[in-house]
Design goal:
single chain; mainly alpha; two-stranded antiparallel sheet; 4 strands; Endonuclease-reverse transcriptase
């Protein structure tokens, strides 16, 4: 697989061989359970995770022949369904739309909302917020953001000579090329605004140690 912005225009000018066998070029490859695209887009990966989580949910429902309490369903959601749906969200999560007003339309949250409505046995048109509130649930974007921040802390807290530490440090030189760093910075800025509303905020660039100083606020 050759990573570039437009995989459909690949002319396969690069030839790779394993011994004498020519390796096939591909646009998608599943690595460690996550579907990776040559364009760097994780849309298909998120769709696959949603479908896997949905199949797991249906399999569980088929094998349960009696009504179980809602609290048990919520435990099933947190221990079985969520780990499947949010697999690798530290990587693909920062690339999704972080706007709470639009989050309901994204693949993972539609599955979450459907699950909530099913166990409450309400109509499909019932507002998502009402269903989540009834169950004491929050949008999954919050868990995704928390896991992304922890992943960022892991990368930045590792040995400065490791490749992943150098990679995140290099990408922070250009904020637009580092969705993870951008997300952490935005969360830090929002927290700072709430605690110190009079301080000016500038999220256009990452200043030296800006995230390091503020990341403890949101962990």
């Amino acid at each position: 697989m050759v990573f570039q912005k437009r995989s459909s225009h690949q002319d396969h000018k690069y030839k790779f061989h394993l011994d004498i066998v020519a390796l096939e070029h591909t646009k998608n490859y599943t690595y460690l359970g996550l579907n990776i695209s040559a364009t760097g887009n994780f849309h298909k990966a998120v769709n696959d995770l949603r479908d896997k989580a949905r199949r797991a949910l249906y399999a569980i429902k088929r094998n349960i022949q009696f009504n179980i309490p809602i609290r048990i369903w919520l435990k099933i959601l947190e221990s079985v369904i969520e780990p499947i749906a949010l697999y690798g969200c530290e990587v693909w999560g920062p690339l999704t739309n972080q706007d709470f007003t639009k989050w309901n339309k994204l693949q993972i949250e539609t599955l979450h909302a459907k699950f909530c409505k099913n166990i409450l046995r309400v109509q499909r048109r019932t507002p998502n917020n009402a269903c989540r509130a009834e169950l004491g649930r929050y949008p999954l974007i919050i868990k995704i953001q928390k896991r992304a921040v922890k992943f960022y802390n892991h990368l930045k807290g590792s040995d400065s000579q490791t490749f992943h530490n150098k990679a995140i440090t290099y990408r922070e030189m250009n904020l637009e090329k580092s969705p993870l760093s951008k997300l952490v910075l935005v969360l830090c800025s929002q927290t700072q605004t709430q605690t110190h509303p009079t301080e000016p905020q500038d999220s256009s660039t990452i200043r030296p140690n800006q995230i390091t100083r503020n990341k403890k606020i949101i962990t």
